Amino acid sequence: MSTLESAVTRFLAHEADLLDRQALEEWLALFDPDGLYWIPAAPGQTDPHGHVSLAYESHILRTLRVRRWRNAAALSLQQAPRTVRHLSNLLITETPEDETVRATASVLVAEYAREALQHYHSRTTWTLRPRDGRFSIALKRVDLINCDGALSDILVVL
Amino acid sequence: MRDPDLEELILPDRVHRRVYTDPHLFTLEMERVFRRAWLYVGHDSQIPEPGDYFATRLGSEPVLIVRQRDGGVRALANRCRHKGMQIAPDGARGRTSSFRCGYHGWLYGLDGALRAFPAAAGYKGAPVRAGHGDFGLDQGARVEAYRGFLFARLHKEGPSLAHWLGPLRSSLDNFVDRAPAGAVEVAGGVFRYRHKANWKFFVENTLDLLHPMVVHQSATRPAAALNAEHPDLSEADARAIAMLLPFEASYDFFEDMGQRGAPFGHGEVGNRLSMHSGYDLDKEYWASMVEAYGQDRAKEILAVSRSNSVLYPSIMFKAPVSLVRVVKPVAVDETVIETWHFRLKGAPDALLARNLHYSTLVNSCAGLVGPDDHEAYQRLQSGLAAQASDWVWLARHPGKEAPDAEGARAGPGSSDLVHRTMFAAWRDYMEAA
Asked: Which one-letter DSSP state was computed for residue B263?
């Protein structure tokens, strides 16, 4: 495993661990200030402005999401969902032009909520910026295989 | 099937919990309410050319909505007359010159007439015939359009679409008049959101102005706090916050929005004042409206802000943010809600982007608003399965209603008038033929 590959693997495992432990404030800190969290609503969606998304969130909107998660009045979150996520088939490409690293993985998020287990399957792509020996997230894009299907709630961060 | 005793289910100020939980009543709703009412099926812009079609459902009935060679639109039964196979899967769309069943190759024209069937000689002496009639797909469903919005009705007899729309015609007018070019088109993708609850909870909730400040405070409180903490929000963030905050407007504000109920169960909330009436007006859009209509008329069009309008039972539409939410009942406790978005022709792209941003925040299954409504519906479904009490109350603001200029009945925003109106129509539709 190359140095880059092992560094990216460690970073993504760290992010997955934060999300599964619901350490969401720490998760917020992984992003660039202008970083984006995006769940497209159509396969291969290229435009976040001329087409709806399941989520398209700036730092402020991610912070709002996390504060809502902590808000006891959030009806749908009162039976706090739990997750375990599995990452595999990691592919990494470096883009020297803008000094970013692109990592793509197959991601399975198993979620337990309302006494039911369900699964979210995606190819997820992170655009990462090397920073102080670690990375920060410029874009996390979650391409669910059923993004245009009749989905029920997605309560958790994917 | 035994007819329900409607007098025991629907009282002037309350309804029996069974209307939401009884599978027998759901089956009857599909046979009566969803066959006798005009149902929204889509928009002209989805099928502009002859042979354009899409497959959808009218209640539980699969249909093909097809643009004809003469420019008209037909709703054909999406079921081969031979063995009964669905000809196109739900959601299919495209352009064709005929429909061919993929099982035994029976071939139908755009008008639904049976044109040909393989090995025809073998039917000698049998009643199978080409053409319309018993072996065609057109079984008499009606299709009519209003300002480009397409509605269909399975039942052959009933009021014209224009009559049925009644006072809410002016709300569909406002939806389209907001386009500088006087027309809208489907754009920006579709949400399909599966709800594990009866369809009526969604429809009623869209005209319930006493829930937003309770159900959505988990989104509005953090939004207000972030707004106060960050005076230097980006334009997009400020816009998002501004679209969330009205969900926690005061009780007085929601009361002042007003509401009205109309014949056939239709209703709406908001008029001059609504959850959208405080939005900033895009300068470029305003200029294009003034150019198209002149300043006075443009002002008049944009002063109307009816936030939620229901054409019972199949849609809720929001003219101020150009979207339509379509009710697709699946079972007594399961409903798919589709959200369709529209581009106002002649308006700048920024306006479409704003309206799509609203929908991503509010209508997405991963959004900050929709899942809490859905949680409420699911707990209504489980709460009403309990035998502790039979009644759901629609008793608010009795007698506080007055006729308006368009023939609707208007009341204070938080009244149950709109819900009483829905159930009066529900009862009429459910009466045995």
From this structure: G
Burial of B205 (0-12, 13-18, 19+ CB in 10 A): buried
**Residues of A with Cβ-Cβ distance to B195 under 8 angstroms:** 152
Two structure tokens written together for B172: 């569909």
Q: Which residues of B touch A55 (CB under 8 A)?
A: 360, 364, 366-367
Find the largest Cα–Cα distance for chain A: 48
**Cα→Cα distances B425→A20, A22, B157, B164, B282, Å:** 49, 47, 17, 12, 40
CA pair distance B298, B177, nearest whole angstrom: 9
Burial of B75 (0-12, 13-18, 19+ CB in 10 A): buried
Chain B nearest C-alpha distance from A141 (Å): 14
In this structure, what token pair is assigned to residue B345?
């022709």
Query: Hey, is the C-beta of B370 within 8 angstroms of any chain A C-beta?
Result: yes
Q: Collect all residues with Cβ–Cβ distance below 8 Å to A87 and sequence separation of at least 6.
A: A12, A13, A16, A105, A106, A107, A124
Say if the Cβ atoms of A151 and B188 lie within 8 Å. Answer: no
Chain A contact probe: residue of B56, B196, B243, B372 with most A CBs at under 10 A:
B372
Give the integer Cα–Cα distance in Å for B337 and B360. 14
Surface of B (130-189) touching A: CB under 8 A: 187-189
Contact B218 A150 (CB under 8 A): no
What pTM value is reported for the model?
0.97
For B341-392, how does the pLDDT look when each residue is reduced to its tens digit (9 = 90+)?
999 999 999 999 999 999 999 999 999 999 999 999 999 999 999 998 999 9
Contacts of B6-9 spanning 24+ positions with Cβ under 8 A: B6/B427, B6/B430, B6/B431, B9/B427
Query: How would DSSP label each residue in B270-339?
Result: -SSS-TTTTSPPPHHHHHHHHHHH-HHHHHHHHH----EEEETTTEEEEGGGTEEEEEEEEETTEEEEEE
Question: Hey, of B235, B243, B323, B365, which one would you mutate to test binding to chain A, going by the most A CBs within 10 A of its CB?
Answer: B365
Does B367 contact A60 at a Cβ distance shorter than 8 Å?
no
Q: Encode pLDDT of B5-62 as tens digits.
A: 888 999 999 999 999 999 999 999 999 999 999 999 999 999 999 999 999 999 999 9
Closest CA to A89 of A74, A107, A73: A107
What whole-number distance in Å separates Cα of residue B98 and Cα of residue B91?
A: 18
Give residues with Cβ within 8 angstroms of B283, minimum separation 6: none
A44 vs B contacts (CB less than 8 Å): none
Q: How far is B215 from chain A (nearest CA, A)?
A: 7
What does the alpha-carbon distance between residue B22 and residue B198 come to, in Å, rounded to a whole number? 10
Q: Looking at CA atoms only, how far is residue A58 from chain B in angstroms? A: 8
Pair of tokens at residue A141: 């894009």
Question: In angstroms, how far is the first alpha carbon of chain B from the final one?
Answer: 13
